[in-house]
């Protein structure tokens, strides 16, 4: 329902983020302005976004109005309702965590060559841009806010611009972002062309022919899918996320990708009317391939942040699977199952924001402590970073989909939706959806393997590398931010019925149905379909885990006397860190099985003693390239370069030639006009 509350209630978080951005400009002379005041304002923006977005969502209300900005004949229309309020909460949670994490994190840049004011200014602008995208109720404001979000994040990706890899990653991101923005603009243009109005309310009334609706969907999927990192338009993501400062990586992966998902939901389920079943097939296939390929590439990475970036691609695929299932069920006359699939997608969007934000912040703590991202140089860090190790473990368990954490709930709901295929009459769908579910199950198993590798190689065993500086826990502000997100991962896993009761209002607006059976057994049991089909009790699972834990260790330490001794060393004498599994060796069996998925170059370099001819050192190098980059993008880049060279021939440097070009162009234009 609409409400007449003052517009200041919803615009305040945006203003606080913009004020944070302006205050940060003074950090070039007074660094404390960024550490304390700018991040304090950013935290205020985050908390107010959580409150206002959550309030709109819980009370099922809509706040709308106009801002005296824009063009004289085109005001900015804003609206906060349950769907945008849900994503506002996601932005607010991560922004609040960053406001605690940031002050201690930026200290390492105070004495470096990079400007603190630049970092603070574009961080505030980035948050404001994302909030405005969610608030926009017309295409004009939406595109302006989208560009603010994209351009500010471009400067943040290229923040450490003295390094060539950072500049290249930022340029690739900017190029893909602008191509995506063009596609979104074309999708909006098709809707605007019907009634000639930029507002979303008028767009909803547009009656597109099936052809133009499909074209608009295609442009929207290209634009929003590019920003979300869906395969094969994902290539910018694993390049940009690793080079951005860690808090920015958390914002980009945890929030910006969800803003793209919001745009896709807004276009497909709201502005384009009733979605066509073929759109669901496209999203289902694209989501399944994105999830599977994303985790395959994540497994092969030895750079910690690059691995997390590929894992984000996988999770965007899982969300897209949920949206595809929702469309298929709605189009085939099963809106209740469509609501279930949409809730699974929304729940996973929230969950991914939490555990991926946690993992990126923990990775930032590791990076700040070790100045290293290569997994092969880690090992035994749990001795030096116990708090970070604990919170990173929570994130690994959550992203692996293990109960009782939040990642399990949303993936379980997605599986429950996929298992309802017998309700469909189409033989094609009854064949495709189980295949997608099987691929999702394989993806979940590979994800668990991936994060067993990450945690084991990073925190367990013996140190593989001797660092020249002491390794210690980061400042308390960084630890508190991780604890905040870890606690939310646990709470959203233990009380899923409470969360579903809140967010089910979104499919009720978009689909016309909610999920009344989810809490019919009370808060203790989650029953997405019915108690006879499937049910899950996270509190009981947690109680069982704690009970088994205490029983096991109680029996272990009370029945037998503890004796500590060194493990058997296989006759080699002293155990060396070189005897441990490396990150590369851990996933070697998977690499052999799925070898066609990558382009792999293996190099073995052996140094021998010239006298004895015995090997002194053996070095193994593994280089893995993204096949999509090689197949789709490199040929296109070569074509563009060839065309540019041919066009460059007209650049003679002769002023008379240029005047002749202008003259003949003018003649052609006059001829066309007449």
TrEMBL record:
It is found in: Cell membrane; Membrane. This is Formate hydrogenlyase subunit 3/multisubunit Na+/H+ antiporter, MnhD subunit. GO terms for molecular function: lyase activity; NADH dehydrogenase (ubiquinone) activity; oxidoreductase activity. NCBIfam families: PRK06521.1. The lineage of its organism: Bacteria, Pseudomonadati, Pseudomonadota, Gammaproteobacteria, Thiotrichales. Keywords: Cell membrane, Lyase, Membrane, Oxidoreductase, Transmembrane, Transmembrane helix. It comes from Thioploca ingrica. It holds the Pfam family Proton_antipo_M. One of its GO terms (biological process) is ATP synthesis coupled electron transport.
